[in-house]
Amino acid sequence: MSEQIKIVVDAMGGDDAPQVTVQGAVEALKITEKISIILTGRTDAIEQELKKYSYDSSRIKIVQADDVIGFDEPPVMAIRKKKNSSIVVGMNLVKRGEADAFVSAGSTGAILVGGQFVVGRIKGIERAPLAPLIPTANGQSLLIDCGANVDARPSHLLQFAQMGSIYMKHVIGVDNPRVAIVNIGAEEEKGNMLVKETYPLLKECSDINFVGSIEARDIPNGDADVIVCEAFVGNVILKLYEGLSSTLLHTVKTGLMRSLRSKVGGLLIKPALKQTMKEFMGEDQGGAPLLGLNGLVVKAHGSSGSDDIKNAILQCIQFNEEGINDKIKENIVTQ
Amino acid sequence: MSEQIKIVVDAMGGDDAPQVTVQGAVEALKITEKISIILTGRTDAIEQELKKYSYDSSRIKIVQADDVIGFDEPPVMAIRKKKNSSIVVGMNLVKRGEADAFVSAGSTGAILVGGQFVVGRIKGIERAPLAPLIPTANGQSLLIDCGANVDARPSHLLQFAQMGSIYMKHVIGVDNPRVAIVNIGAEEEKGNMLVKETYPLLKECSDINFVGSIEARDIPNGDADVIVCEAFVGNVILKLYEGLSSTLLHTVKTGLMRSLRSKVGGLLIKPALKQTMKEFMGEDQGGAPLLGLNGLVVKAHGSSGSDDIKNAILQCIQFNEEGINDKIKENIVTQ
Fold first, then answer.
1. What average pLDDT does this structure show over A216-236?
2. Where are the beta strands (DSSP E) in A96-248?
3. Using CA atoms, how far apart are residues B6 and A86, in angstroms rounded to an integer?
4. For residue A186, what pLDDT is reported?
5. Predicted local confidence at residue A281, as pLDDT
């Protein structure tokens, strides 16, 4: 067997840590022999959780971290000051090459800042985008960037398009992924300054399959595989996806309570509705990668369950085996 | 009776013009005696439609316009060259004070450009925002700006907040409307340069009820009445609202076809679902106002039916009776 992929899991990150983080890690170990896990956080709390399970103890290790970065702490300050937090300790393991990937359901801001300043960007990569998969009518699309890189420049968006294409092709398995830029009209001359300046760069780039502008209306329809935008717009799209789906489903459910007829109908459709929504939400990767770093950082949702943590861990295998970072270095940085 | 409010309707604008535009105009006349209508467009085509109805002919007038601006024509060029189009002819009537308002379901781009360059902005107003109402869990919110004013400045957004507040209070009847700025986090220090610079201006402005940042996730929940953002972001929100609602409903409907049980359930819930969605979509204003102009311009959806046109026309009454433009002049420009 080849050498194991070492994945650090922030045991303290997320709403239900360390319960679900430890459980997710143990479950991931059972699925594949390819990985070993390092849990960062308070040893006693982690051991307490580990006691609940039987697992291959040769493949799991605890690295003590006294501190936890909270969701409401200013990220830059927290990363600077809390050197002994589960996030900074975990990221340092990746930086020093003692681990291949870092998974956390902790503070998004802290993970983004830590990714850039602790793990560090691949030489030549100007910004490290957060790139979640969003569900569409016919599968899923990569929304890149949803991070904290506000006020982006055209050269950043070009790299996002390139990194996003590599990820969708080699990790998700989409052949010749269609790349589109979010715009307020389909015509080439439309858009704000950033989009107008980025458009020709994407058009001229020979190693992506650029299909032009995409209006937000067509994103849920799955008209592109890699949706390029600056982080403010990406954040609005991602959050509105969550908010509107939830409001619409809630509205429909409430509406079904208005008559006996619709109540009965509601009971009959429940399993099909549940299954459909599950399918729409797609095969969950468990987390969004932060691309372009010296090592992989995966951000899982703060409300992750153990399944999400497990999936986020398993996602790192494909990323590592496909040598995504080597491909990024070869294809982007040397241009 | 006081003088009638004169409303110009672009008879040729929209997917189903002049049928639905003429029908909508005739229906509006029947509802209230407060208005008279001027239809701009090809006289023969309009007369052909008018023949189908009985109406008070003293309150309807045709002004001939030979040309029509198509949906795919570059707006600036079209407004400049087609001086004899139904849009330019209609807007000139408002500009010269021969009418109070202009309603069109034609090309959004042409209406935005024509509003700024034909009708013209109120002195002191820097940009004229397009401000549609969007449905929320507990009513509707004004999304301002969704127009073509890309690369906005903080002073523009401040005026949007003020004009939006006046509109929501006096036209929609929301007491002390809550104003929020779209941001990628709730904290004051978050956001891109534009939001960071706009935030203190909104906070210091004494004539609006500023409640801080709103994340896109909370927009469908109705957490604010006036949602301030620059046009690129507004456009993304508006279009994603349309696209995601449509995709989700389609996905649910398709999912219900998978078993006999869910098919039966689907039939039972159909009336309640339809009613609920109708309620969620809110009391339709029929169109979005373009605020801050020397006269009112209302943009109706390209796919408007006669009801939408009728509602867009009726909306102009409240706007006119409340003297919205005088309020804008008094409250904003003189600051």
1. 95
2. 101-104, 133-136, 139-144, 178-183, 209-215, 226-228
3. 68
4. 67
5. 65
Exposure class string for B202-227: b at 16+ Cβ within 10 A, else e: beebeebbbbbbbbbbbbbbbbbbbb
The residue ranking higher by pLDDT, A321 or A271, is A321
Q: Look at A268 and B264 and tell me if their CB atoms are within 8 Å.
A: yes
CB of A231 within 8 Å of any CB in chain B?
yes
> Quick one: closest CA in B to A267, which residue?
B265
pLDDT cut 70: percent of chain B above it: 96
Chain-wide mean pLDDT for chain A?
Answer: 91
Side chain identity at residue B132, one-letter code: P
Kindly indicate whether the ipTM for this predicted assembly is greater than 0.95, answering yes or no. Answer: no
Contact B268 A264 (CB under 8 A): yes
In this predicted model, what pLDDT tens digit does every residue of A10-45 receive, in sequence order?
999 999 999 999 999 999 999 999 999 999 999 999
Task: Please name the helix (run of DSSP H) or strand (run of DSSP E) that holds residue B289, with its range, or none.
Answer: strand B287-290
Which residues on adjacent β-strands are paired with residue B213? Answer: B181
Contact A146, A231 (CB under 8 A): yes
Contacts of A192 in chain B (CB under 8 A): 150-151, 232
Contact (CB<8Å) B218/A243: yes
CA B111 to chain A, closest CA, distance in angstroms equals: 15
Can you tell me the distance from the alpha carbon of A168 to that of B197, in angstroms, rounded to the nearest whole number? 36
Q: Rounded distance, CA B309 to CA B298, Å?
A: 10
> Is the CB of A255 less than 8 angstroms away from the CB of B151?
no
User: Are the Cβ atoms of B247 and A221 closer than 8 angstroms?
Assistant: yes
Determine if residue A160 is left, alpha or beta; phi over 0 gives left, psi from -120 to 50 gives alpha, anything else beta. alpha
Residue of A262, A274, A279 to mutate, interface with B, max B Cβ within 10 Å: A262
Binary contact (A275, B255; C-beta < 8 A)? yes
C-alpha B6: how far from its chain's center? 19
User: Judged by CB atoms within 8 Å, which residues 262-281 of B form the interface with A?
Assistant: 262, 264-273, 275-277, 279-280
Contact A240 B248 (CB under 8 A): no
What is the predicted pLDDT for the residue at B139?
A: 87
DSSP state of A107: -
Phi, psi of A298 (to 5 degrees): -115, 125
Query: What's the average model confidence in pLDDT over A197-204?
Result: 96
What pLDDT is recorded for position A268? 85
Q: Which of A203-212, B53-62, B207-216, B264-273 has the lowest mean pLDDT?
A: B264-273
CA–CA distance, B233 with A125 (Å, rounded to integer): 26
Q: How close B276 gets to chain A, by Cα (Å)?
A: 5
Q: Which residues contact A206 (CB under 8 A, 6 or more apart)?
A: none
Q: Rounded to a whole number, what is the distance in Å from the CA of A256 to chain B's nearest CA?
A: 6
Determine the 3-state secondary structure of B3 from DSSP.
coil
Residue A264 has what pLDDT? 86
Mean pLDDT along residues B198-207? 95
**Closest chain B C-alpha to A58 CA, distance in angstroms:** 42
A98-126: average pLDDT: 95
* CA closest to B276 among chain A residues: A255
CA distance B76 to chain A (A): 12
Please calculate the CA angle A216-A219-A224 and round it to the nearest 5 degrees. Answer: 125
Query: If pLDDT is split at 50, 70 and 90, which confidence band does B58 have?
Result: very high
The reported pLDDT for the residue numbered A1 is 42
CA angle B292-B297-B302, nearest 5°?
A: 130
- Is the model's pLDDT at B335 over the cut of 60? no
